[in-house]
Design goal:
single chain, alpha+beta, globular, binds aspartic acid
Length: about 600
């Protein structure tokens, strides 16, 4: 068979090729048979190009074109001709041109496809994943991966320019307590022992700082064996960074400049830096969340002073218990009574015992299930708490323990914003949330856990504070209500590290066993250091406006952690298990996907 060499990409045909003989290779996207003329849209990574087969150009090629079906792989050669004005397709990059085919080679055929490349959007996701190679051929997916590549490439370029080294750290490692359950890998040589897959390269990147590398980054694969949620993957990718001799602001400024570079380079957008900064306490008290969506206002206010002398017994009891009364003030929208009652149901579904609504039509016209019990100057009191209260505003009140009530209000705030349609869809709102608590109390296990991880440095003065009050030198970068990444300044001093391990309830033996190497390194010239990690899948998902991170991961698992193409995970036979010194219990060996 004659070998045809591809001249250019289907989507790249332009003026330059006018009247030229060229060859294109790709997949048959669509075929229209108009009797004498056959039209084929040929598709490759770069786009689509119309091929025209006419017996007058080549009888043989025309005959072959009759036999072509969707997704046949072909090379077609011929002359690039300008289309007649009435047949120009303005929606196509190459819509001004067509290729008059004079010769063709079929490189491979394709059977009837399980779904069409054109409308895979409506296809069951598991089927898409089973035939991921077909799914990946869709132009939308091609766009997602082109963007993913460009973003990661730009990040590398930026960090290289800032004198960072890209260094790989092991995948077979030892567990690091960062809060998630780990995947274990049995060792055949060390029977009975297991490696852990890294939740993140945390300890390795710190040790690299001790190794004098000063500026490290890695496009790192991380693994977490957690209960799967709709948009979580057991493995994901993060941009992992660590630096020596720096402060919180150095890391934050680096990330701001990196994101600005990426936006400029990849999207041609100007990103405004520096980002807004909020402390964890500010974020939580105003938005009921440590990752607030700042594209809209709807702040949470503390209405406890407004109700200080209330006649309402249930609110009096709340205040007497030292709990709080919080509320969101919505102006510019009127609600019918049935809508207000629907919000009560919603709040209850979010975990609130109740939701009190107060409709402030005007200073002397207030309606609410409790309006009789509200003082005459209620409107004025509200005005003192919120900066501006217009006539026709509605208050949604939730009372209870501060953390619980505010978290519910935070979720109510998001629901309200969605329903009231006040979220600017094309805005990208970045912010930093800083000064996180170092520890969080686990009421179930009655112990304190690290909020970030045990290697995060406590903020000044910590040794004289109550455990719940200690702040961490930790920060998160938030985009439109989604945590894009987080990091911290780390502990580099053995004494501090040992004290923090103690706060976390780790015994000296446990510490020696798990972190002996770290403590030892901390006594051998460990420089002050800190870093951050950005979740790349989520970031690309937001940039491509994708509905799920699975749209931007080439081979994701289903929500049940299953790969329908490779059909993994798979059972292992007894012979292989034996090599690892393993034996399955009857329950697990019966379990099938
Ligand atoms: N290791 C952390 C994480 O994966 C990030 C960091 O502290 O740099 O979330």
């Amino acid at each position: 068979m004659q070998v045809y060499e591809r001249t250019t990409g289907c989507g790249l045909v332009n003026e330059q090729y006018w009247n030229q003989q060229i060859c294109l290779s790709g997949w048959v996207h669509r075929r229209r048979d108009h009797g004498g003329l056959i039209f084929i849209d040929l598709r490759d990574r770069s786009g689509l190009m119309q091929l025209v087969f006419n017996p007058e150009f080549s009888k043989e090629a025309h005959e072959i074109a009759h036999t072509l079906r969707s997704e046949y792989v072909i090379t077609a050669c011929g002359k690039v001709v300008e289309r007649a004005p009435e047949t120009v397709n303005n929606e196509l990059e190459t819509g001004k041109w067509e290729l008059h085919v004079e010769s063709i080679a079929i490189l491979n055929s394709a059977k009837m496809l399980p779904f069409s490349i054109e409308d895979a959007d409506v296809i069951d996701e598991e089927l898409r994943l089973k035939y991921r190679y077909l799914d990946l051929r869709r132009p939308d997916m091609q766009k997602n991966f082109a963007l993913r590549h460009k973003v990661i490439f730009a990040m590398r370029e930026f960090l290289n320019n800032q004198a960072f080294y890209e260094i790989e750290t092991p995948i077979l490692t030892k567990n690091t307590p960062e809060g998630a359950r780990e995947f274990l890998v049995p060792s055949r040589i060390h029977t009975g022992s297991f490696y852990a897959l890294p939740q993140s390269p945390q300890l390795y990147k710190q040790i690299l700082m001790c190794g004098g590398m000063e500026k490290y980054f890695q496009v790192a694969r991380c693994f977490r064996d957690e209960d799967l949620r709709a948009d979580r993957q057991p493995e994901f990718t993060q941009l992992d960074i660590e630096m020596s001799f720096i402060s919180e602001l150095d890391v934050q400024h680096l990330i701001e400049r990196l994101l600005k570079f990426v936006f400029d380079k990849v999207l041609g957008k100007n990103l405004h830096i520096p980002f807004k900064r909020l402390t964890y306490d500010e974020a939580f008290s105003s938005y009921g969340s440590d990752k607030p969506d700042l594209r809209y206002d709807l702040k949470i206010h503390d209405f406890s002073p407004v109700f200080a002398d209330t006649e309402l017994k249930f609110l009096r009891d709340v205040l007497a218990r030292g709990e709080k009364i919080g509320g969101i003030h919505v102006s510019g929208h009127s609600f019918t009574h049935s809508e207000l009652n629907r919000w009560v149901d919603k709040a209850q579904k979010l975990g609130a015992k109740g939701l009190l609504w107060i409709d402030l039509e005007s200073p002397d016209k207030i309606s609410s299930p409790v309006s009789k019990f509200l003082p005459a100057d209620f409107f004025a009191r509200v005005l003192k708490t919120c900066d501006a209260v217009e006539n026709g505003s509605v208050l949604f009140i939730v009372a209870g323990e501060y953390e619980v009530a505010w978290e519910i209000l935070g979720r109510l705030r998001q629901e309200l914003a969605k329903e009231l349609n006040i979220i600017p869809q094309d805005e990208l709102n970045f912010s930093w949330v800083t000064d996180f608590p170092l520890l969080e109390y686990d009421a179930k296990d009655k112990c304190w856990n690290a909020k970030h991880h045990p290697f995060t440095s406590p903020a000044k003065g910590w040794e004289h504070q109550e455990l719940g009050e200690i702040k961490a030198r930790a920060y998160d970068v938030v985009l439109n209500g989604i945590e894009l990444g987080g990091g911290s300044i780390r502990i580099h001093d053995r004494t501090v590290q040992e004290k923090v391990f103690k706060l976390l309830g780790l015994s000296a033996e446990e510490v020696a066993l798990k972190f002996g190497f770290l403590l030892e390194a901390q006594e051998l010239g460990f420089p002050p250091h800190g870093g951050i990690a950005l979740g790349l899948d989520r970031f690309i998902m937001l940039l491509t406006n994708s509905a799920s991170i699975r749209e931007v991961i080439a081979f994701p698992k289903t929500a049940r952690g299953y790969d329908p193409m490779m059909e993994s995970p798979t059972p292992v036979d007894n012979k292989q298990l034996k090599e690892y010194g393993l034996q399955l219990s009857p329950v697990s060996s019966n379990k099938k996907e």
